[in-house]
Amino acid sequence: xxxxxxxEEGPLGGGAAASAEAARRAAARLGAALxxxxxxxxxxxxxxxxxxxxxxxxxxxxxxxxxxxxxxxAGVAVVDLHGAAYAGTLMPLFEGYLxxxxxxxxxxAAGVDEGxxxxxxxxxxxxxxxxxxxLDQGDTERAAIVETLLDVLSxxxxxxxxxxxxxxxxxxxxxxxx
Length: 178
Fold this sequence. Notes:
Helices cover 65% and strands 0% of the residues. With 178 residues, it is an all-alpha fold.
């Protein structure tokens, strides 16, 4: 059984058989996300980085919205449990995905590749904001995350901008009383 997404027409062609196969594959990917979320408390340092790398590389751009939501939830669970302890390891990983560009062949072409790129950035913003929430207000890593989120805010994607703004608000210090 393949867990691959169903972006291209497979050997089954179209019709009911292909729809059933697509649903089966989506259910398997959903199961993988739910399993990762359940395993989050048992992950060690290497597994934390590997699981988040998997989620960012494959799960956050899943074509099925329910699977994608479960993948983001799994990542949030991992970061909630381990983010503060592994912030120094996770920051470069997250920033690497935010700085990645679309493949050269897809540049200038709208559609699936641009959409996937935005989905990954949107998910990484959520994970980065989750990480920042676990760091102390004066922590330099937290300040770096806020700076990164502000940079990402210039992304032309409205979904990415919404994700950034929802994560920035809780990170801003409360104004002091006069």
